[in-house]
Amino acid sequence: MTPALDRRREVGAARGPSAAPEPSIGWPGRALLIALLAGGTFIAVAWAFDPLGLLFWASYASVAALLIVRRPRNVIGWLLLAIAFGFTGTTSRPGIDLAAVEQGVGSIGDELWMWIGSWAGAATFICFFALMLLFPSGRLPAGGWRWSSMALIAIGSLLVVVSAVAPTITYSPDGGATEIVAPNPVAVLPGLPIWSVVPSADVTIASILVLLPIGVVTLSMRYRRSTGALRLQLRWLVAAVAFMVGAVVTGLTILAIVGEDAWFAWVPAIVAYPTVPAAIGIAVLRYRLYEIDRLISRTIGWALVSGSLVAVFAGGVLALQAVLAGFTQGQTFAVAASTLVAFALFQPIRRRVQHAVDRRFNRARYDAERTTTEFSGRLRGEVDTASLTTALTDTVHAAVTPTSIGLWLREP
Fold first, then answer.
1. In this predicted model, what pLDDT tens digit does every residue of 380-407 receive, in sequence order?
2. What number of other Cβ atoms are within 10 A of residue 132's Cβ?
3. For the chain, what is the domain count?
4. Statement to judge: residues 69 and 129 lie in one domain
5. Cα distances (Å, whole numbers) of residue 115 to 44, 89, 196, 204, 385
């Protein structure tokens, strides 16, 4: 049976012909969702306007709203919405009277924002951990990992609650460079002696961060053991996370080479971060689920081609500048010549690189093209009808493996 037919059967079996239709959240649910989206957008724009924070809020909140409307029983959509609010809550708000808040006499808005910012980051990490465990079905994994996962989520959530009601809160107004410790406006029984043994905010966030590698390992193990449509769903998330990590590493590398003035170093990361919710939405809704191999192949191919051309251009400029150092227009000529060389090598490099990448990451397309090319070569020199019929049927069997095949030839 062909991969295409296998894929259709897997999708049909996953959905089920007699499966009950997904329930609607109803008008009360839609009204609540609209209110949450409107409130989050107002906070992201009016209270804590930050272009990157607004981008993260928009990407996660839009996918979350789509999943909540289309798959209300799946908790993934609600987790994405909570992560979107977490991004907004961790954004530094300008204009806060830090001295007044530190003394406990700040305004209600300032104290409320600092209180939210003191635990929003930890809550976001817990949501990411739960997302890795629950993706894509919204249910915890079966077996021995189920109770362990529930215990880890419960412990992490308890740490967030404790930090939210502790006698003091820790707030970073500049993204982590400095920290301010202020009285907690919503502290619960701050005079109890038990608060002296409660871990500090740094220990709490460090304990929660330990959960993220556990989630990554669990996700990797599930991916290696999965098959069919589930494997493709996990591949979407793994590919998006790998793209995000690669973009961050690229940005750090550019900063290390060029310096802190390289503002463009974080452009790949800005592009990569919204791909995570987009990949989650595609995987959960199963929209173009089987395009992941082609997408990975094209992304890797264009990245390798771009890197090769940049290396050719930089190497050509340096080499020609060294040779033409005594000429007045040596630098201009080196740049122009290197540009022409890179332009001339674009198509040959792209064909070779894409062919090699397709063989590794897009086998379906590579095998189909190879089968079609081989049949075209045989057809070009064939004149006997019987041999042509045999070659055609053999090619069809090799490509799609049908249960039966028929060939009709038109009478001359």
1. 666 666 777 777 777 666 655 556 667 6
2. 21
3. 3
4. yes
5. 17, 10, 20, 16, 81
